[in-house]
Write a structure and sequence with these properties.
The protein contains four helices and 46 strands. It is mainly beta. It is globular, with a radius of gyration of 28 Å.
């Protein structure tokens, strides 16, 4: 529930218009070589910063001062034309003929299942502005991403579940560095909110499959986040709501040379709990904090260095119920992340990006007989190069090294069904360390006319268990016309097993990487007014982790995920919005499954509808409706008495054989923009925003999970995090 710093993003809505004095009308038409009109071509006079777009008949009109002028005429798929004219009273209409030219490589997105910026190509994605204003998104990066197809979230948390895969199957990077814990209130099913302030967000590339060879170590998806890099901006933003508040700022020195931006946030939801109650019984209200800073230095015309640092932490204590035990659960988490990037150009042709990063993560938790602590120290480094060999071909290559160093200690339940006082326990003390060097190469080229391809592969070595993996990948795009593209992609992907599975006592240090193969086919229609995408996919798993009587764990699991994702986005006058739908059929055999069974991470149907209406330049209304079919869970179908422990034990049904109820939620939002005049020596604000958001306005008591009493005679539904109606009000001020 973080709705902070709206002012910085909403300021982009304002535009300034300048009138032209002593101007004369210049009219004309833009045609192709066949004499057909070229619609939506841009006709601009760069020196005067004026321009116009052609209509459906290829016609345009703009006003220019008397005298000579140069018209720049451009449109996707055509060569740019420069037309010199002399503006005078009674001049004849200008006629421009454009020659056809296939798009350059950098203008075409070849990869399937991708959202966000890739080179110069921009796909549909939630912008920073959308993160702040989307109803129900809680002004949170990860919560807002739930609206994209391919994310089949089985719960209300911020964790990214991609096409049937758990959160650990998605690689998350910030400024090139890998981060494994970007959440607040992280549990076994992922976190509840992002630990990254959206003020810091510049762009986010998201892929739900078939992603580039540049990315390794993930079976399902990639989320690649870049933070802001302003060089000539000075702002201060302050925001607060019923759940907390924060401040952010950007400062620059020596224009175009050095800049510093940062943010600090504090989450304190006691007021919210007192007003509306909570679906969870907290002994003490949870608290969270995060801070971010980014230092930029442009040391030459082509070179730039950037240092990013993130810190986050949270703590909570609550009454929890799991199987036969109800008691106190407490945890604390802290994450530190740093990434240093260097960018430059070699010989004026090859773009280089070097990075060094590290994540330091510490957590501890207690529940019944469990008292454990986990520490991670994960450094990494890499070098990427992009070499445009010609307008038809671009070569990318690079290498990386990363280390996964995990220290897990504590006392755990020896019996997975007994957490009551006096339950048997076992000690765990392990520190697996895995070094992973690797390299990749990728060739992006225009094969012929409107046909583009990306061919590549990567190889990675895991020091534990001491094995190489090879992952070929390929994608093909057919640019049917300026609006339509057909894509297919395929590839192989590997990911290391969890650290605790490699324990030499209670695990298998010879456990190999998990594997998946992707096949994707999709169609996209895109214009300035809207975007339609339809994709079908299949993901085949192998070498998943299963329980083993001799070695604890083995690579004998397998499974699949197949489905269809649909995304429709459009704008009409003051109304904008999108619809996202996903159908998923997925089954796995892993852990103690006797055969392929329903995937606990996947839901069959997911639907999100978002609409926003701009009532005026300062007033916006928004609504968001989310639906998902019930996710699988393992039911308790009976009970038996254990006289030795004097407790009831559950009789569990087949794994994931039952479904939770369907999920429904409607959120509404009203946003009002305003400004504050200069007062008490304070300069006028650039933009301010006040908002009121109603979350779960229908008051639907969605079920997060089922729990039982200690003798398994009764089942109770545990409500989801946003099971109550919430009315959240806040304000953001920017100078």
């Amino acid at each position: 529930m973080r709705h902070l710093f709206l002012g910085a993003a909403l300021a982009a809505l304002l535009a300034a218009c300048q009138g032209a004095a002593n101007a004369m009308p210049v009219a004309g038409v833009v045609l192709d070589r066949a004499g057909k009109p070229v619609e939506l071509a841009t006709v601009a006079v760069a020196a005067l910063r004026r321009g116009a777009a052609t209509d459906e008949q290829g016609r345009f009109q703009l006003e220019l001062p008397e005298g000579p002028a140069v018209l720049e005429v451009s449109q996707i798929g055509y060569e740019k034309a420069l037309v010199r004219v002399v503006v005078a009273e009674g001049m004849a209409a200008v006629r421009v003929t454009l020659a056809e030219q296939p798009l350059e490589l950098a203008e075409v997105t070849v990869a399937a299942s991708s959202f966000g910026k890739s080179g110069k190509a921009e796909g549909p994605v939630l912008r920073r502005y959308d993160v702040f204003t989307t109803p129900g998104g809680a002004a949170d990066v990860f919560q807002s991403l739930r609206a994209l197809p391919g994310i089949n979230a089985p719960a209300e948390g911020a964790a990214v579940y991609v096409r049937g895969g758990p959160p650990e199957e998605t690689l998350i990077r910030i400024d090139g560095g890998e981060i494994g814990h970007p959440y607040h209130y992280e549990r076994a099913s992922g976190g509840l909110f992002s630990a990254l302030d959206p003020y810091m967000l510049k762009s986010a590339f998201f892929s739900s499959g078939g992603f580039s060879a540049q990315y390794g170590g993930a079976l399902s998806g990639v989320l690649d986040i870049e933070t802001q890099d302003p060089m000539n901006l000075k702002t201060v933003s302050v925001g607060a709501n019923l759940a907390g508040g924060g401040v952010s700022s950007t400062w620059s020195r020596n224009a175009d040379r050095r800049s510093l931006l940062g943010s600090v946030r504090l989450g304190v939801p006691e007021i919210l709990f007192k007003l509306y109650g909570s679906s969870t019984d907290y002994e003490t209200a949870p608290r969270s904090h995060d801070a971010a800073a980014r230092l930029l230095w442009r040391y030459s015309g082509t070179g730039r260095a950037a240092l990013t640092y993130l810190n986050s932490g949270d703590a909570s204590a609550l009454t929890a119920n799991y199987l036969n035990y109800e008691g106190r659960y407490a945890d604390h988490n802290r994450t530190d992340f740093a990434a240093l990037q260097l960018q430059d150009v070699l010989a004026g042709k090859v773009a280089l990006r070097a990075r060094v990063s590290g994540q330091w993560y510490d957590t501890g938790w207690t529940f019944g007989p469990i008292a454990a602590a986990q520490r991670e120290r994960n450094p990494g480094a890499g070098l990427d190069a992009v070499w445009p060999l010609s307008p038809r071909q671009e070569l990318s290559f690079g290498g990386l090294w990363k280390r996964r160093d995990t220290d897990l200690t504590g006392t755990f339940a020896a019996d997975s069904t007994d957490f009551s006082p006096g339950a048997p326990t076992r000690s765990f003390d392990t520190r697996p360390r895995v070094d992973v060097p690797g390299f990749y190469v990728e060739d992006k080229l225009r094969l012929w006319g409107p046909l583009y391809a990306t061919l590549g592969g990567r190889a990675d070595y895991a020091s534990t268990p001491g094995a190489w993996t090879a992952d070929p990948r390929a994608a093909l795009a057919w640019r049917v016309d300026e609006h339509q593209t057909v894509r297919i992609a395929t590839g192989r992907y590997h990911q290391l097993a969890r650290a605790d599975y490699l324990d030499p006592v209670y695990g298998n240090p010879r456990l190999g990487p998990l594997a998946a193969g992707h096949v994707i086919a999709g169609y996209e229609w895109k214009s300035e007014f809207g975007n339609i995408r339809v994709e079908g996919y299949r993901k085949d798993y192998r070498d998943l982790v299963t329980n083993d009587a001799a070695t604890y764990y083995a690579n004998r699991g397998y499974g699949y995920a197949r489905g269809v994702d649909v995304f429709v986005q459009g704008t009409h006058r003051w109304l904008s919005g999108w619809v996202s739908y996903g159908y998923l059929d997925t089954r796995r055999r892993e852990y103690d499954d006797p055969r392929e069974l329903p995937d606990p991470y996947g839901v069959k149907h997911t639907l999100t509808l978002v609409g926003q209406y701009q009532v005026s330049s300062s007033l916006q209304l928004g609504a968001r409706y989310g639906f998902s079919s019930g996710r699988p869970y393992t039911p308790v179908v009976g009970r038996t008495w254990d006289p030795g422990r004097a407790i009831w034990r559950p009789v569990l049904g087949e794994n994931h054989s039952a479904l939770l109820p369907d999920y429904h939620r409607l959120d509404l939002r009203v946003t009002r923009l305003f400004s504050i005049p200069a007062v008490a020596g304070l300069r006028p604000s650039s933009m301010c925003a006040a908002y009121v958001e109603g979350m779960n306005v229908l008051g639907i008591r969605n079920v997060l999970e089922y729990v039982w009493n200690s003798d398994y005679s009764r089942r109770y539904a545990r409500d989801s995090y946003f099971a109550r109606r919430l009315l959240v009000a806040g304000v953001a001020l920017t100078w």
